[in-house]
Amino acid sequence: IGGEGIRVTGSDGADILNNQVSDTVSHGIYLNPSHDAVIAGNDISGAGIDGIHVSGSDRVRIEDNDIFART
Question: What angle do CA 43, 54, 33 make, to 5 degrees?
């Protein structure tokens, strides 16, 4: 729909772990609304807008992700 590499909506407690995402139209990882989620250990490169986009979500832990711009 929006050209995201990974799109998670309405999934409380989601774990988005250890993925490789590249060359997306918009976000590498998109999360909305999903509370108590973990986004960790992902390699994201060449996202069209944001590497990781989180909105409408509480208590989201984001750690140890590698995000690189388009070259």
Answer: 125
d(CA 38, CA 70): 25
pTM listed for this prediction: 0.94
Residue 61 falls in which region: left (phi positive, over 0), alpha (psi -120 to 50) or beta: beta
Q: For the chain, 71 residues long, give each residue's pLDDT as a single digit of tens.
A: 569 999 999 999 999 999 999 999 999 999 999 999 999 999 999 999 999 999 999 999 999 999 999 77
- CA–CA separation, 14 and 66 (whole Å): 19
